[in-house]
Amino acid sequence: MDLQIDSGWIDGWMDTLIDGWIRVIKNYQVTKKNYYISTIHYLYSLSSSSKRTRPTSSATRSSTAEEEVSNLLLLQTLTCYEFPNQGKTDYYARKRLVVQAKNKYNSPKYRLVVRFTNKDIVCQIVYAKIQGDYVLAAAYAHELKDYGVKGGLTNWSAGKFGLKDLKFDEEYMCSYATGLLLARRVLTKLGLADKYEGVVESDGTVQLTEANEEGPRPFKAFLDVGTARTSTGARVFGAMKGASDGGLFVPHSGNRFPGFDIETKENDDELLRNYIYGVHVAEYMEYLEEEDEERFKKQFATFLKAGITSDKVEDMYTEAHEAIRENPIKKPAQKKTGVKAYPQKRRLTKRERDNAVRAKKAAFHKELAEN
């Protein structure tokens, strides 16, 4: 009895196998050219040997294989978008923030990167290279302790004080101070601190840093919010306002600051100033102290421990802004001294290990003789 095989079934099975392998290669973006060529030629050789009902010339097979190779090699030039699956990068925005002007001779495009963690605010001046992003300068909210800010290191002017009970927008203070610290630090590093002082005492008005008639132009950086929500009054715009008042040229408008009226298209400068200096926090402290003293002591325990009352909040941030302008340079980290909890043991030499073995043997024989 002769075994008969349906050639049509084999052809369909081989088509599925070849398509599957090519799909795997595309998905993993293999970058070895020899692997591309050898794999695809091998698959097409299998296909040509099984598909006897549809013979093709060697020239046709070669051209088809080379076409697949060229398509796969094209994947090497494409960006491997890994972070969208993790939700860490907005590539639509990053592409426009990173691309450089072709007529400025490799002049980098700087970004004002603002990120928030549970306990800190990170502000950085970043520029992109082929190898990756490089940080020119950085400032953190936890550094504000050195400038007199006693607590609330993640709000608009500098914790979350439960202001939503009074229908306030998101807190605004320390983000402003962190942006101000970054601006003064990067300008000091570049030697532009004296030429661009920015807004020394902010009154809440929207002002952009203008170029001096004589001297270098202002340092320009574009706001990079990442994947944060850019709602009206968001803390990220507090950091931007601080950097702008610190002397950086950050192109922006005031339609996302607290107090912006969407109907009249005007900003409430007084409300914005209150957010910068923490006046709204002081008002809430007074309100909470009268309404619920127990919650007041729990909510503002850090301020009360440091002796900060409602009438001292504005002065605290004013003095912090002055201290930042006097000395924005980051203090070098102090090396920790003391005994380590788990000191690393030195590896014994060969002679020391042999002596330890002899000592154990001698002690064992001595104990054995005594017994």
TrEMBL record:
<dbReference type="GO" id="GO:0022625">
    <property type="term" value="C:cytosolic large ribosomal subunit"/>
</dbReference>
<keyword id="KW-0689">Ribosomal protein</keyword>
<keyword id="KW-0963">Cytoplasm</keyword>
<dbReference type="InterPro" id="IPR025607">
    <property type="entry name" value="Ribosomal_uL18_C_euk"/>
</dbReference>
<protein>
    <recommendedName>
        <fullName>Large ribosomal subunit protein uL18 C-terminal eukaryotes domain-containing protein</fullName>
    </recommendedName>
</protein>
<dbReference type="GO" id="GO:0000027">
    <property type="term" value="P:ribosomal large subunit assembly"/>
</dbReference>
<dbReference type="GO" id="GO:0006412">
    <property type="term" value="P:translation"/>
</dbReference>
<dbReference type="InterPro" id="IPR057268">
    <property type="entry name" value="Ribosomal_L18"/>
</dbReference>
<dbReference type="Pfam" id="PF17144">
    <property type="entry name" value="Ribosomal_L5e"/>
</dbReference>
<dbReference type="GO" id="GO:0008097">
    <property type="term" value="F:5S rRNA binding"/>
</dbReference>
<keyword id="KW-0687">Ribonucleoprotein</keyword>
<dbReference type="GO" id="GO:0003735">
    <property type="term" value="F:structural constituent of ribosome"/>
</dbReference>
<feature type="domain" description="Large ribosomal subunit protein uL18 C-terminal eukaryotes">
    <location>
        <begin position="313"/>
        <end position="365"/>
    </location>
</feature>
<comment type="similarity">
    <text>Belongs to the universal ribosomal protein uL18 family.</text>
</comment>
<dbReference type="InterPro" id="IPR005485">
    <property type="entry name" value="Rbsml_uL18_euk_arch"/>
</dbReference>
<dbReference type="Pfam" id="PF14204">
    <property type="entry name" value="Ribosomal_L18_c"/>
</dbReference>
<feature type="region of interest" description="Disordered">
    <location>
        <begin position="329"/>
        <end position="371"/>
    </location>
</feature>
<feature type="compositionally biased region" description="Basic residues">
    <location>
        <begin position="332"/>
        <end position="350"/>
    </location>
</feature>
